[in-house]
């Protein structure tokens, strides 16, 4: 499965929500789901399935439930008129701090902290609109005070996660294990560096799911039930 959602769908969501004043459809009860995940725990597939389920059970036209993950970076680049190669400075596993600092001093790109701030502002804006699922980028911390956000953490054993990674990326099990460790460390560092937050703090989440014991569909169903229970339509 392609981990990058269609940017056109995400932009269509924003155009629908942020159209002319007479056409805007702000409903403050519309919830947002944030998903923090261990590498290889099925976050992208679960987010996509969750959007399908919620679109059936809790629709709020005209804006459909939409998943944002890597598209958050793409949106910032579009909004700020930045070259696409700048995306390497704001993923969770970015270039080294020293390289980033030197290149910023020479005017080659904005600072990583500036770009992270812009991504976080996009997350806040999406949280106000609702009907979206945001994967990663510290979204559970950015929207920690939101009364309409449900925060999910997906976890799993290294063995099972490495198996998924090996199958998805077509690599051997040792490489998959190393990839999982590297990505998990990068995500932990991202949260600590920019938000002074521990990614494994269980109190940051409303629900933590071990994806070793459930299929992706079952996890999506479980999260959807939590959304409907916490935010019943009025």
3D architecture notes:
The chain has 234 residues and is an alpha/beta fold. It has nine helices and five strands; from the N terminus they run αβαβαααβαβααβα. It has one domain (7-223): Rossmann fold, CATH 3.40.50.300. Helices cover 50% and strands 10% of the residues.
Largest β sheet strand count, sense and barrel closure:
5 strands, parallel
**Sequence of secondary-structure elements:** HEHEHHHEHEHHEH
Poorly predicted tracts of residues: 1-5, 21-27, 80-91, 93-109
**The CATH class:** Alpha Beta
Would you report the number of β strands?
5
User: What is the CATH fold-level name?
Assistant: Rossmann fold
The name of the CATH superfamily reads P-loop containing nucleotide triphosphate hydrolases
Strand arrangement, largest sheet?
A: 2-3-1-4-5
Give the termini distance in whole angstroms.
Answer: 36 Å
The appropriate CATH architecture is 3-Layer(aba) Sandwich
Structural class computed from helices and strand pairing: alpha/beta
The radius of gyration is 18 Å
Key structural traits:
Rossmann fold
How is the topology of this model organized?
Layout: H1 7-17, E1 32-37, H2 43-57, E2 66-68, H3 70-79, H4 97-105, H5 112-129, E3 132-135, H6 139-142, E4 149-155, H7 158-169, H8 173-195, E5 207-210, H9 216-230
Parallel strand pairs: 1-3, 1-4, 2-3, 4-5
Helix pairs in contact: 2-9, 3-5, 7-8
Brief synopsis:
With 234 residues, this protein is α/β, with parallel strands linked by helices. The chain contains nine helices and five strands. Helix 7 packs across helix 8.
